[in-house]
Design brief:
Elements lengths: L9 E4 L3 H12 L4 E5 L2 H7 L5 E5 L3 E2 L6 E2 L3 H5 L4 E6 L3 E3 L2 E4 L2 H13 E7 L11 E5 L5 E5 L4 H9 L4 E6 L5 E3 L2
Helix pairs in contact: 1-2
Length: 180
Amino acid sequence: MMSELRPGQSVIFDASTTVLEVARAIAAAPISLTAVTNSLAIAQILATVPGVRLVMLGGTCKPGSLTLVGQPGENFLRTIHADVAILGTHAITGDMLTETSLEVAAMKQAMIAAARRVVVLADNSKFTTPNFCTICRLADIHQIITDDGIDQANLSNLRTLDVNVRVVRVSRSGSSIERS
């Protein structure tokens, strides 16, 4: 994912554990950008990175997590035009992304609408039955980045749906290496 980010870009970081890893990678190899997030965990990491201008979305802290949802964050997203949104999802099923919470899905929908390019990070375990509510259709995103543990039937389905998919090889230490 880091290879796709450019200095000076505005990037929306969704509150997900996979996207948190992108924030950690930015902390390890700083890049100047404007970061917008609804994640207190991601904000804590990016706030210390030289060259990162951090914008926190307001909202209510979702019980049991470090995720802000609702207003004023959703309304604020309607006023910005980010270069990239990086999102996680609870499930990818057929041609849709789904989530466990209406409030989280609504925040992700606002993020998608606020970005010119949408990248979804989803490890192979996310290709499963749908969760409670729909975030969007695959046609609403620009790329899915997943690991090489993805089932070939799921990969074929994505390619049949004309989704831009990048598969990365995951090493035993947990770091990822791009596969061509």
